[in-house]
Amino acid sequence: MKIVFITPAADIRRNAIYRLGGSFYGRSNSITGPLILGRILKDAGHTVEVYEELYKNLDFDAIKDADVFCIYTMTSNATRAYELGDIFRNKYKKRVLMGGIHASSKPDEALKHADQIIVGEGENAILDVVEGNITDSIVYAPPVKDLDTVPFPDYSILKTPCKVANVMTSRGCPFGCIFCTTSRMFYPYRKRTPDNVIEELQMYKDMGFKYVNFEDDNFTADKNRAKEILQKMIQNDLIFKETFFFGRTDMANDEELLALLRDAHLNRVLIGIESLNQESLEYIDKHQKIKDIERCGNILQKYKIKLIASIVLGLDYDTKEDIRKTVDFCKNINAYQLQPAILTPYPGTPVYDQFVKEDRMLIDDWQYYDMMNVVFRPKNMTPWELQSEFFHAVKEFYSFSGAMKMFKIFGFEAGIRRLGLWIASSFGMSFFKKKSNKEDGNIYNQLKEAV
Asked: Alpha carbon of 286 to those of 176, 179, 270, 275, 354: distances in Å?
């Protein structure tokens, strides 16, 4: 059979301006799940193609001959995923499977647009489902016990642009922040052996990749294991031009780890600062103190590790003043980039259950559940005010003077990237203001009218 995997992108993410901004924020890559599942099917003799709609529009004429369409869902792309599922089933009369975080949280909803839903990790179920050996409408796939048995992603089946190889050295997270989906999807927390990780990295080096993303929720959760991987990367000359990873503020307590991260070129890290309000940190179950944030922010620059500071806007204990204080802090510690994330109540998380119980949900179209749009009623401000704070944070952080500072601290490439984000953020602000005044039912106008 011919099987096509698609990771959809919401309407706004296929917009030319959004794609321009995304090109400055990071480089093209691909979610590893479809590349792993595709390899399993390819090894079984099937023809497989994988598409990331974020980077290139689908050519329906090129894929309509597929026998099976496998659609990967996240909450923000669920609306588009359902649209594609309906097209493939109703127009082309094809078989459609859905999986991923959103379909796993809302299988009954997703089943209205697909023939079968795979809930959980698909490695142990995909072949039997595709070949018809499992016919249940909703298939509950058991988690993989030994991650070293999972085949490496197959990038030869990817048909859309990709400059960065993604690596997951673990699944899940030992922490459980109330807004996090992946710690629920990938449970329990499991780790690959360092040698298995090194083998995959060697494959990417041989393929000519210059950039790598470690996609673990928290690569440095097990510091001794992280050190072993880093030491083996250095010993085997598996050093890439730039390697991104997710970390926590506690990594700042281990300077041996920081030195190894620097020497192995893991030089771009996203850390969840979230808030400088300790009450908010307790509310989201972050297990993090203000002093941890301050120490981490100050020490990363010493080791030339670029900090992408992630903050959450709209927490129940935060005011507008708290948000602006946190943005100023990120500027003062010379954060390389800012990821201002509007609190988003994803299905399957405690914060979603809380807001549903309190009748605070405002927007029910999943495409707006993307951490850039307000979909609930905040406690300490109106929905419109919170949405405005998001754009204010972007405007305040991505300034021309900030870009000039990046040139001095991190060099030409970092400065150019910040200049691009400054330009893109200016377009975003203009778009927001224009849409909010247009009474056509768009989300920004809805938020402006909401009380």
From this structure: 8, 10, 15, 10, 17
* Low-confidence residues in the chain, pLDDT < 70: 17, 20, 24, 451
In order of 8, 88, 94, 121, the CA distances from 65 in angstroms are 19, 10, 9, 27
Is the CA virtual torsion 328, 332, 333, 334 positive or negative?
positive
Say which DSSP state 123 is in.
T
Cα separation, 398 vs 331, whole angstroms: 9
Work out the burial of residue 134: count CB atoms within 10 Å of its CB; fewer than 13 is exposed, 13-18 middle, 19 or more buried.
Answer: middle
Return the closest-CA partner of residue 7 out of 93, 99, 87. Answer: 99
Provide long-range contacts, Cβ within 8 A and 24+ apart, for 132-138: 137/111, 138/107, 138/108, 138/111
Map residue 315 onto helix, strand or coil: coil
Among 92, 87, 19, 90, residue whose Cα is nearest residue 52? 19
Structure tokens at 311: 């903050």
Side by side, the strands of the sheet bearing 306-313 are: 164-167, 211-214, 242-247, 268-274, 306-313, 337-342
Q: Which amino acid is at 117?
A: I
In Å, how far from its chain's centre is CA 27?
13
What are the phi and psi torsion angles at 345 (to 5°)?
-80, 90
Q: What is the pLDDT of residue 17?
A: 67
Rounded to whole angstroms, how far apart are CA atoms 138 and 123? 15
CB 69 within 8 A of CB 95: yes
End-to-end CA distance of the chain: 53
State how far the Cα of 419 lies from the Cα of 305, in Å rounded to an integer: 19
Cross-strand partners of 172: none
pLDDT given at position 95: 98
Q: Give CA–CA dist 393/363, Å, rounded.
A: 22
Strands 116-119 and 306-313: unpaired
> Distance (Å, rounded) from C-alpha 82 to C-alpha 429?
30
Residue 412: count of CB within 10 angstroms of its CB: 9
Q: What share of the chain is helix, strand, coil (3-state, %, to 5)?
A: 50, 15, 35
| All residues at 6 or more sequence positions from 348 whose CB lies less than 8 Å from its CB, including other chains | 101, 104, 105, 181, 184, 185
